[in-house]
Amino acid sequence: MNKFHDYDEDDIRQRPGKHKSRPRTKDRPTHKNSITGTVITVDRGRFTVHLKNSNTNIYAIKARDLGRKGVVVGDLVEIVGVDENNPENMARIIKVNERKNTLTKSSDDIDSTEKILVSNVDAVAIVTSTTNPEPNTRLIDRTIVAAKLAGAEPFIVATKTDLKNEGELLKFYEPLNIKIIATNKISNLEEINKQLANKTTVFIGPSGVGKSSLVNRLIPQANRRTGDVNEVTGRGKHTSTSAFALSLNETTCIIDTPGIRSFGLAHFEIEQILEGFPDLLEFSLKCQKNCKHLDSTCEIEKNNAGNPQLLNRLDSFRRLLLSLEKNVD
Fold first, then answer.
1. With contact defined as beta carbons under 8 Å apart, do 292 and 284 qualify?
2. Beta pairing class for 56-62 and 46-51
3. Three-point CA angle 285, 289, 295, nearest 5°
4. Degrees (nearest 5) of the Cα angle 312, 315, 319?
5. For residue 201, how many other CB atoms are within 10 A of its CB?
6. pLDDT per residue over 69-124, tens digit each?
7. Pick the residue with more confidence: 176 or 161?
8. Considering 80, 152, 299, 316, which has the largest number of Cβ atoms within 10 A of its Cβ?
């Protein structure tokens, strides 16, 4: 038997070649039919976006093209794949439009990593109770600094004024010419509504000061969770877990944020921080070039020896500077 055999092409096994993909192109999709919306909340990678034209909310995720670019509450974004008949079908955010401004903080005073809280705001409402818990003036000062550096107007909302009036806050912040609005559970909201009109305002403050309760009074349908103050620690319980934008009307929007206990400013320079203390800034211009503003040689102190109010403000500024250097507050 002849063990040799005449082979033809049918007898030869060929290894399948690798799949050849189409050559990559630099041309990216133009997404001409994208829709503009406003991010109103963020939850673990899912974004709720308000579509103004149709007055509806839809859910979206980031498109891969955005990479690591962050998307925050207040952002104006371009989205595709919108299914208004079924909002659970995720649209895709393909672009974050240019921001007017951002309100930022760092996690503490030695970590200069900048975290964007919200974007595109006109004003910052710093909510503080007059008592239970007591006002944290250093936290208020830091928030004022961040607001001013963001180009947003800061003002203070003093709650629980039925338990203690706002007199001490008025006296302490009088040199800054910052508006202070007094509120309580039964007060008229006319003044604060007037302050909020035709603006996007973010509400910032510690837990337990009545921030979410105030939001619920301003927008009853908001149904923001509220909490009490711990009698032992004097701190409030966190009730809001994420920032949430809510519309009062077509031209007025407020953003409720989770309670904060610190407001790091390590991502700012000392000269920038001083801009948040305009009552001290004019005296600092007389200081020596390398003045650190921390001792009696500082012109701010020398020029205000008989002004206890300004010296209190200087003490707050110095505490902030020391915390940036030593991480103590």
1. no
2. antiparallel
3. 80
4. 145
5. 23
6. 899 999 999 999 988 777 678 999 999 999 999 999 886 656 667 889 999 999 99
7. 161
8. 152
CA 270 to chain centre: 21
Number of residues that this document lists for the chain: 329
φ/ψ bin of 123: left (φ > 0), alpha (ψ from -120 to 50), beta (otherwise):
beta
| Cα–Cα distance list, 160 to 171, 183, 205, 210 (Å) | 17, 7, 14, 8
In one-letter notation, the amino acid at residue 285 is L
Token pair, residue 259, equals 């309670």
Q: Distance between CA atoms of 72 and 117, rounded to whole angstroms?
A: 7
Which two tokens mark 215? 């939001």
- CA–CA separation, 245 and 55 (whole Å): 14
Residue 223 C-alpha from the chain's centroid: 21
pTM of this structure: 0.77
Q: What is the pLDDT of residues 124-144, one digit of tens each?
A: 999 999 999 999 888 898 898
